[in-house]
Structure formats: structure tokens, C-alpha cells
Amino acid sequence: MKLRSIEMVLPAADQAADFLINVWGAKLAAQQNNTHYIRGSGTFPYLVALEEGDSKYVRSVTFVCDKQELIALKARVEASGFPARPEVSNDLGGGEGIIVELPEGELLRFLADTTEVDTLDDEDLPVKLTHVVFNATDAERTADIVEQVLNFRVSDRTKGMVFVRCNDSHHSTAFARAGFSSLNHIAFEMQDTDAVMRGVGRLRDHDRTPAWGPGRHGPGDNVFAYYIAPFGAVVEFSTAVEKVPEDYKVGAPEDWTWPENRIDQWGISDKDFAGLKVAEQTFSFRRTWQPEPLN
Ligand SMILES: [Fe+2]
């Protein structure tokens, strides 16, 4: 199971695409069906779909898997009773599978038989998405659900978040103990720490400073730099997230504490708590389809 992409709807999608391409450093894969598809250097046909619409919302977050995984997933989703329907993707890369709405509204899509593309040789492009994080009213309940229904695994718990993996990457998603549900942020995996830092420089060329970072996280050990994109969402340059074994010992909040005045391993950055909190409420999920039997 791999995290592949996020599909967003928003006004002025062309301006959001312009930011991701000409400032952030990603690449236009295609423009079709009122949608800009933005890719990185890796084999996924796109990482972010930006569809023109009247209001801002997330249509889905897409994971790709093989047919066997999809069959097992379908059975568990059906047994859960959560709203779901079969899905034939019209996005780049095609594929078939299901989309399910979790109890706090998160819309997760699982596709098999998707196509991939040739890699691009450009060390400044993001490679892929490394995680998409959600705000949750009840992060523990949501994490329990994704373990039971989606077969994801909790990697670590902190005071603020529950980190969840769907393969050997420490986390592909996380649920923030926010008290409300929405999109928290989208993290792009850069080739290495230098590529993150060159990204920070590129943003600086456009008079943009990080909302948090650069720094190195505790859980996952990844390097980060967060920005508030002009289209409202929080986006992150990240790299070097930890790979974990199947029997990784789940950390508890008391295992992940910081010395006073520190919120990352390096201790070199400030965090715009107020700005991030507003940005993290810009996009929530909206289900625009009716549930249907999965078989
Ligand atoms: Fe992150």
C-alpha cells in the first residue's frame, strides 16, 4: 500500500498550480477536465490534482495497492458499514477500486491497476508525497478505525498526534488531536536534506518564509520545512523519514517530549502557531457521491 496523491477542489486552481509549479518546484503533468495535475520526479503520474470549483475542499486522498490488498480491503470496508462506493478513476493514471468516508469525513480512495510514468531526472523536484495529515476531533478513534478497517498500523503517539503507517515508512498519514476535522497538511518528499534546504532558498527568492522549520521531527525523524501556500493549505518539504520494521514499538506521548523551548531536534526554528491553525482549517473533505454496494 502506498500513498499516491491528493485531489483538491478550489477556486482559482490555475493560481494554485502556478504556485506549486513555479515557486514550490513541482511540475505540471497535464491539464484536463478542469483540473491541473501536478507531479514530482517519481513514478506516480501526479501527486496533487487541483480541480476548479466554487469552494475549497478535498475530494479524496488516494492510496494505490495491488488487487489482493484491494479485495481484502473491500471486505473490511463493507463490514464496517461506512459510506463507500466502487470507484473507476478518471484522474491521470486511471485504476479501479473504492472510495470510503471515515466517520470524521475523511475521504480515502484505494486504487489498483493504476499506471505509472517514467521518472524525471531533476533533483529539485519533489519525488512524491510522503504523508498527508488530517485534523481529527477524536484522533484515537480514527486511528483505531484505520487499523481495523484499512489494516494501517499506529507507529507513534505524541501529545499532538497519532502517526500511522501503511507500509514500512514510519507514517504516511497522521491524525492531529485538533478538536475538529480537516486537512492538516500535505508533505512532499524531497530527494535529500540538501533538496529541502534548496527548496527553502527557492521560497525565500519569492519572499516566503517557513511557517515552521527547517527542523528535524521526533517521530519519523524526518527533516521538515512547512509553508502556508497562497491557496490556503499547509504544505511541507520533507525528507528522510524513518523506515520501521513490522514489530516497531509504538511510542507513547511520554516517549516524545522536548526540552523547554524546543519543538524539533535541531532547535533552530520558530513556529507560526496562529497562522498554521487558520491554514489547517482551510480545506475539509466533502462527499459529493452517494454510497453504493461495493460488489
Ligand atoms: Fe508533516
Summed up:
The protein is α/β, with parallel strands linked by helices and 295 residues long. The protein has five helices and 17 strands. It binds fe (ii) ion (FE2).
Q: Can you offer a commentary on this structure?
A:
This is VOC family protein. This protein folds into 2 domains: 114 residues, 2,3-Dihydroxybiphenyl 1,2-Dioxygenase, domain 1, CATH 3.10.180; 152 residues, 2,3-Dihydroxybiphenyl 1,2-Dioxygenase, domain 1, CATH 3.10.180.10. The chain is built from 5 helices and 17 strands. Strands 1, 2, 3, 4, 5, 6, 7, 8 and 17 form a 9-stranded mixed beta sheet that branches. It has an 8-stranded mixed beta sheet with strand order 10-11-12-9-13-16-15-14, with helices on both faces. It is globular, with a radius of gyration of 18 Å. The mean pLDDT is 97. Fe (ii) ion binds next to strand 9, strand 13 and strand 16.
